């Protein structure tokens, strides 16, 4: 099966054609590198030097496409050229083939060729000088160095610079890719954080508004309607204030994720009072002490969302909120009666549980929510354990 050589590069084709035409021009005017009467010239006359010229032009054509084939063939053509009157163009094309063999060849060839040509240059300097003992013998080593070693060394230098530039480019692309991934992750995390904040801050007030507006529309009692409207107005004002605070966070140029207006556990009493005003029977037991700010915000939001869910879904009965501290954890528990209901008092999307779970995961804590048996009947329990140590918050 015949082996097809790769298609030559356009520049190589131009170089080969230019070299061939230049060699023919020198041949036409009778200019060679050696006189015909030198002992080394075995093929006398002008026609024999066209053979190595044509072969070298073919090697120049394949200098980039097939350097492993071009260099040995070019070496044989150069040896043949030394047995004729010689052509300067043939020698010049050989230097280019040697340069290309190092630049475009395999990494092993790029490492070996400079060493091999360097040793040949040394041998071509030492051996003739030792045999003939005349200073002119040094010119042989110089010629070998110029024709073979210099192109090989130049090719190695250029190849090293190209590989260094390619490595730098790849590192830059990798750095840019990692930076883009970090940016996307940061944007995603920020969007998730804002979604949690928006849900936790607004859902409670909107749920209360929906429940009491339904009551005001369904009951033909002016006193009940007025109380419902008072609750609706209070929740509307509080919800508007929370929305303004969220807008302030979004406009904060410093990206402050925990501004001074963030709710704290000191506000649990007010939160519970608001839930009671909305119709929940809430029992609060809090013994938490001082906790880190991220834990404090997460615990507050978990209690807030749990009370909102209880307002929408819980059966009649007490809702118990408990915050205790122990073993380096802040334990948050919210339980509410769990019974069969025809429909929730206000629509829900399930995003509340997702947000609570995300908040706990960011602090490397544990979270569970679901129905549980209890002495007073089935209850819905939300349990979160939030680490208090700085290492767990990293």
Mean pLDDT: 83
Contiguous helical run count:
11
Provide the gyration radius in Å. Answer: 44 Å
Which overall shape is indicated by the principal axes computed on the Cα atoms? Answer: rod-shaped
**Percent range for helical residues?**
55-70%
Question: Unreliable segments (pLDDT under 50, ≥5 consecutive)?
Answer: 255-260, 390-394
What oligomeric state is this? single chain
Proportion of residues in extended strands? 5-15%
Q: How many structurally independent domains?
A: 2
Computed structural class: alpha+beta
- In the sheet with the most strands, the strands line up as 1-2-3-5-4
**SSE ordering:** HHHHHHHHEHEEHEEH
Largest sheet: 5 strands, mixed
* Cα-to-Cα separation, first versus last residue: 65 Å
The total count of strands amounts to: 5
Features:
five-stranded mixed beta sheet, 394 residues, alpha+beta, rod-shaped, Heat Shock Protein 90, disordered C terminus, 5 strands
Topology diagram in text:
Blueprint lengths: L9 H19 L21 H12 L5 H16 L5 H17 L2 H26 L5 H81 L3 H30 L16 H10 L3 E7 L5 H21 L4 E9 L2 E9 L13 H12 L3 E7 L6 E9 L2 H4 L1
Parallel strand pairs: 1-2
Antiparallel strand pairs: 2-3, 3-5, 4-5
Helix pairs in contact: 1-2, 1-4, 2-3, 2-4, 3-4, 4-5, 4-6, 5-6, 6-7, 6-9, 6-10, 8-9, 9-10
